[in-house]
Design brief:
Blueprint: H1 2-8, H2 13-26, E1 28-33, E2 36-41
Antiparallel strand pairs: 1-2
Length: 48
């Protein structure tokens, strides 16, 4: 379903996945809270 929505918006799914993976790996804050792992990212610009 997500692939279809990205396609509909003209977003390259492979490029999108690479960008998300890079942001999560290098620009996120990871916390361990009571048996839960929280990954947070700062909200960026629309095309960032």
């Amino acid at each position: 379903m997500l692939d279809y929505l990205l396609y509909k918006e003209g977003i390259d799914t492979k490029e999108f996945a690479e960008i998300i993976a890079e942001k999560v790996l290098y620009n996120s804050n990871v916390e361990d809270r009571e048996n839960e792992i929280h990954i947070s990212l700062k909200k960026g610009e629309k095309n960032e």
